Amino acid sequence: MGDAGQSHSALDTFPKLLIDNARRIVDRPAIREKDYGIWQAWTWSEMRSEIAAMAAGLHAFGFKRGDSLAIVGDNRPQLYWAMTAAQALGGIPVPMYQDAVAEEMQYVIEHAEASFAIVENQEQTDKMLEIMDRCPAMKEIVFKDPRGMRHYNQSHVRSLEGLMEAGQKFLSENPGWFEAEATKGSGSDTAIMLYTSGTTGRPKGVVLSFDNLVITARNGVEWDHLKETDEMLAYLPMAWVGDNIFSYSQSYVAGFCVSCPESSETVMHDLKEIGPTYFFAPPSIFEGILTQVAIRMEDASWINRKLYAYFMDVANRIGPAILDGESVSFMDRVKYALGNVLIYGPLKNELGFSRFRVAYTAGEAIGPDIFDFYRSLGINVKQLYGSTEASVFICMQRDGDVKPDTVGPPATDVELKIADSGEVLFKSPGVFQSYFKNDEATRETKTDDGWVKTGDAGYFDGDGHLKIIDRAKDVGKLNSGTMFAPKYIENKLKFFPYITEAVLFGNEKDYAAAFINIDLEAVGNWAEKQGLAYSGYTDLAMRDEVYDLVIECVNKVNVDLSEDDALSGSQIKRFLVLHKLLDADDGELTRTRKVRRSTVSERYGELIDALYSDVQSCLVEAQVTFEDGRTGTIKADVKIREATMIPVAQREAAE
Q: 653 falls in which pLDDT band (50, 70, 90)?
């Protein structure tokens, strides 16, 4: 925080941190936004003035201590300021997902008892107006962007510009008011309420205190040595706890600058312009970027393809070791340095990754090959494990101690334990206060002595790193007693480009077996290069050549599993390639493409029985729904293959 800053204990809320930063690092940029192609920046001093005016404006129009403020829109400086303004007044910001429909917003606003809403534009204003008569606590709607708002003359709809003008007038008449209000709060006060996605029912309002967020953010800042000179791009939803930690809490603690992209469509371009040093992206973003790199290389000249292939081989072999500070031969360092000039440096610059010091991914498992690709380029990508109820950080990977298949050791001040059921539980300074107006759910998740149930099953490896294997409710056991974690194994299979979906069976069975869906585009491209003609998915999926392709993937997964003490007994013994793609229209997947295990088990019971017999094929008939709504029937003789299993005793002998 700097020698001139106040002590950590005194800076226990974001309004206090704001005032301290505005005094201490006055002219450093705090936030910037790209609008109409031009970047506009505000220093910490300027941001303090803007937030003070906003807080005074809210106060002038009746916002009181304890009130809730709904915030809806893309990542915009004014919406981040609204959070601090509400907190300075003792209010509770409730950021919401901007793509939610009006009915979804109604539930959150009504449940949170929000009295004010600050929204980005006309679209969000219209949603608020649609539900306002069903939200009795709502008094005022404030919009940021005036475009399209000329004829909105309702008394409870006003512009942010007008609110700020009222605030500035109030401040001119009441000097010192903002500092007095902003310093009334304490670390134990409620800082924010963030709503869960509601995948298992109604969204729950997670109540987090300033202590939860400030202490957790400070621990993360110290873990990764973040400073006021760092830069972050804020592009993920403000309603998500990760954005609240990375783009808000840690920015206030470390004093670094946050940049807001022009729109969701310009994120990659804006990323390249800003060149942030600190970055977060879910695995899907990293996977998508790598896919685009692969496509561009296919279109490159033969000499560029040759250079790329050669130097990527060098990077894959020694890049992670160089990044982790391990010993590498002089000649290898020379090759890597040349590769950096010719390939790695230009590629990172094109992606906007040149200045990355720290980059995190979380949320879903990331493929080891994808993870290693970025680290081989010298990009310090790490994994973390967290949740809203933890104020994000539960486990984090340390620089120089990064594994592709774990989420690292416990974060600073976090205690972890594994229940007898295999479920991961934690304690930390970030543990949420409660679920708002839902004592029953709070008691189900948080024990009386402060342990929080994550719902995830995992275990510690020999180095004390946590390995998450599955949702606890899905973990079972083979008849041998070996742990069976279907989603963990399915994810390993889906890391291969030729496999788009997998369904594992094994709970209370003698061995693990799998259904596999091939990726029609990837396998189709492969088939064309092999001169293999086919008439459609079913024809391609039944080919021996395709089974040969898939069995290589399955065998590689078995090799990985054989090296895992807890899961070595759950290697895949038998598998089949399904004769049709699992489809949401057929009820086999949810609309978010999650497998409906019960439906698949019921519909394909005869295939499951075949996997647990000695037959080599099974004649099946299945009804399918076509894109135009018509239904039809597919008949196929589905083959069953035996995979290569690595005996544990053989592995131990080899070691």
A: very low
- Section 97-122 average pLDDT: 92
Return the CATH number at 566: 3.30.300.30
Q: In degrees rounded to 5, what are phi and psi of residue 423?
A: -75, 140
Q: Give the single-character DSSP code of 527.
A: H
The secondary structure of residue 74, as a DSSP letter, is S
Last residue of a domain, one of 234, 261, 280: 280
pLDDT of residue 283: 80
Answer whether residue 321 is part of any domain: no
Amino acid letter for position 161: E
32: enclosing H helix or E strand:
strand 29-35
Which of the residue ranges 40-49, 396-405, 518-527 would you say has the lowest mean pLDDT? 518-527
- What residue spans of 209-299 are helical by DSSP H? 210-223, 241-243, 250-254, 267-274, 283-298
**Among candidate residues 170, 161, 214, 220, the one with its CA nearest the CA of residue 192:** 214
Q: CA-CA distance, 88 to 65, in Å (whole number)?
A: 9
Number of independent structural domains in the chain: 2
Would you state the structure tokens that stand for residue 608, as one six-digit string?
């499951």
Confidence at residue 570, expressed as pLDDT on a 0 to 100 scale: 93
- Residue 470: inside a domain, yes or no? no
Within-domain flag for 247: yes
Distance CA 572, CA 192 (A): 46
Q: Which of 62, 71, 152, 68 is nearest to 110 (CA)?
A: 68
Residue 481 belongs to what domain range?
475-654
pLDDT in tens, 410-439: 999 999 999 988 899 999 999 999 999 999
pLDDT tens, residue by residue, 4-23: 456 677 899 999 999 999 99
Q: Return all residues near 375 (Cβ < 8 A) that are at least 6 apart.
A: 319, 320, 323, 381, 402
Contact 429, 212 (CB under 8 A): yes
**Mean pLDDT confidence for 154-180:** 95
In this predicted model, what pLDDT tens digit does every residue of 492-517 receive, in sequence order?
Answer: 888 787 888 899 999 999 999 999 99
How are the residues of the chain apportioned to helix, strand and coil, as percentages rounded to the nearest 5? Answer: 40, 25, 35
Q: Domain ends where: 217, 252, 280? A: 280
Q: How far apart are CA 161 and CA 82, in angstroms?
A: 13
Domain membership of residue 399 (yes or no) is no
- Cβ(624)–Cβ(583) below 8 Å: yes
